[in-house]
UniProtKB/TrEMBL annotation:
This is Papain family cysteine protease. Residues 29-85 form the Cathepsin propeptide inhibitor domain. Keywords: Signal, Zymogen. Residues 1-19 form the signal peptide. One of its GO terms (molecular function) is cysteine-type peptidase activity. It comes from the Eukaryota.
Amino acid sequence: MKNIIAATLTTFLIGLGYYQENLDSASDFERWALKHGKSYYGDEKIYRQTIYYQNKKTIDEHNKRTDVTYLMGENQFMTITNEEFIRLYLNTKSPEQQNNQNKVIRKNIHKSLETINKENKKWPIDWRGKVKVKNQGSCPSSYAMSATSQVEAEYAVLKETSLTLSAQQIMDCQTMFRGCDPNYDGNTAWDALSYIENNGLYPESSYPYTGRDQWCQVNTGGPWKIKNRWRTFSTTVQELQSDLYFYYPYLVVVDATKWQFYGSGIFSDCSSDVSQGKYYALVVGFEDIWFVQPSFGTAWGESGYIRLAPGNTCGILNFVYHVDFIKQQIHPISKQESIQQENLSNSVLIPFLNYL
C-alpha cells in the first residue's frame, strides 16, 4: 500500500514540474537526515524525500509572504505530512471520546476564590528557562511531559532550584503499557497529575525517558509528590496573566495542529477549539503575547518556545491546570520504595517531598 502511495505521489509531483528540480538538490535531504539521525531505504526513502521537498516548498512559499506574523523553519518534522504530525505527536481523540472526557472535566472545575482586579492592568512576566525544554521524540507524550514540567516549574520558582522528574514513569506505570497511544483515555494531563499526587515520581536521572511503550520499571511510587491538583475552565486573559505574574508557569491545553513548522514570530494560525489537535504545554509568560513551552526540543521554534498572539489563541484559556503550593517536608524513604529493576540506576535514597 505504501509503495502505491509513494508512486502515486511521485507521479503527481513530477506532473507539477518540481520533483526533478528537487532531486537535483538531494544533498539538502541527506544533510537533514544526517542531522536528525534518520535513515530511509528503497521506496520509503523516495516517499520521505518527496514529503521533505514538498514541506520545504511550503516553508519557502510561506516565508516569502508579506502578510504573515511568523516564519516557518525546517526541523525534525520535515519528512511527515501534517496528518501524520497530528496523529503521531498530538493527543487526538474521537468525538465520542472527547465528549466523555469533557463531561469529566466539567465535574472538576475550579473557580478561583481570589478577587481579580478588573482594571486594564498588565503584569508582564517571562519564566522561560525556569525548567528545561523537553523533547518527546516520536511519542505523543505531551500529557506526561507537561505534567512533570508544571511541578518542576512551581518548584523552580518557589525553591529557586531545579528538578527534573520522570515523565516516562507516568507513561509506564499509569497507562498500563499504552503511554504512547494518542487515543487512550488515560493519557491526559489530569490523570498524569493524579498519578503524581497518589504515587509520586522518581527523578528522570533514575527513571530515564525512552519515548516508547514499556512495562512499569518500579513496584512502588516515587518520592516527589503533589498534595492536590485542580483546573480552571474558560479563564480570562487577566486571570491567567496575573496568575503567571504572582505565581509560576501553568499547564494548558492548546490546538497545535499547525505548529509543525513554526520557526519564529507571533503565531495565531489556529483554532480556539482544542478537541481535534489537543496538545499539553506550559505557558511560561505574558508580555502582550503568550510565551509557551511545548516538548518538541530546543531545535524547534524559538529555542523550543512559541509566542502566541494575545487572547484565547489556540484555546490557551480553555483549560488551565494547577497544583498546590510547595512546602518541603523531609521523611526517609524505605528500602521498599527504592527502584528494583536492573536497567535503572541504583539511586541514592532521596528525601520525600510532599507539596503542602
